[in-house]
Design brief:
Pfam families: GST_C_2, GST_N_3
Order of helices and strands: EHEHEEHHHHHH
GO molecular function: transferase activity
Number of helices: 8
Organism: Roseinatronobacter thiooxidans
Protein name: Glutathione S-transferase
Shape: globular
Radius of gyration: 17 Å
Mean pLDDT: 95
Distance between the termini: 20 Å
Keywords: Transferase
CATH class of the largest domain: Mainly Alpha
Strand order of the largest sheet: 2-1-3-4
Largest sheet: 4 strands, mixed
Structural class: alpha+beta
CATH topology of the largest domain: Glutathione S-transferase Yfyf (Class Pi), Chain A, domain 2
């Protein structure tokens, strides 16, 4: 597989794809390109009319956006069955769990957008809404630790990307540390299978 992945080192959606590629053994065949969304390159704009990251570009498949779709595409590239069970019922349950994990990123992104607004336009009500979504989602996942399990798949990779980003952008809330089950799970998988960011990842300037 020869591909180009546009993204940044801090985006949780990009890191979800990056971790997936490393787990599946596909990273070395990929060229990573850093993106400045304020001044996007013509090549990036041509690949994604919505100007969203990540976007994976392959010669045969074209441009693929949305982190979950990219991950499932990569799983098929790697032979299938590594990110999701093949049995329909088990696959559906795992997709549902992965969607909750992805929802943490969405809620956290909403909170961050609100807090970055100029103070006169910032809404404490909107911020509290997003924070409450985060807390409910994390409480639910803390109760699902046994169901999540210790192995890498779509749900657990998504949760790692979500929790690491939440700790980066919302550390003052102590959300993960307040849930020992989640904190312990994250520490265990980080030591077990979460790969480090490859040297030079997304360091190449935009085309």
């Amino acid at each position: 597989m020869s591909a180009t992945l546009y993204g940044t080192t801090t985006s949780p959606y990009v890191n979800k794809v990056r971790i997936t590629m490393q787990i599946l053994g596909l990273w070395d065949a990929c060229r990573s390109i850093g993106v400045d969304l304020n001044t996007p390159s013509p090549a990036f704009c041509a690949a994604t009319p919505l100007r969203q990251i990540p976007v994976l570009v392959e010669a045969d498949a074209g441009a693929i956006t949305d982190s979950t779709i990219i991950c499932l595409h990569l799983d098929r590239r790697a032979g299938g069955g590594q990110l999701l069970p093949k049995a329909e019922a088990a696959r559906t349950r795992r997709l549902a769990l992965a969607a909750v994990c992805n929802g943490l990123i969405d809620a956290g992104a909403g909170l961050r957008r609100e807090m970055l607004r100029p103070a006169p336009y910032r809404s404490a009500t909107v911020a509290a809404h997003h924070l409450a979504r985060l807390e409910r989602g994390m409480d639910h996942l803390a109760d699902q630790i046994d169901a999540l399990g210790p192995d890498p798949d779509l749900a657990t990779i998504t949760l790692v990307a979500a929790l690491e980003w939440i700790e980066l952008r919302h550390a003052s809330h102590g959300l993960t540390q307040a849930r020992p089950a989640l904190a312990g799970w994250l520490e265990a998988v980080q030591h077990s299978w979460v790969p480090a960011l490859p040297a030079g990842a997304f360091a190449t300037a935009q085309d």
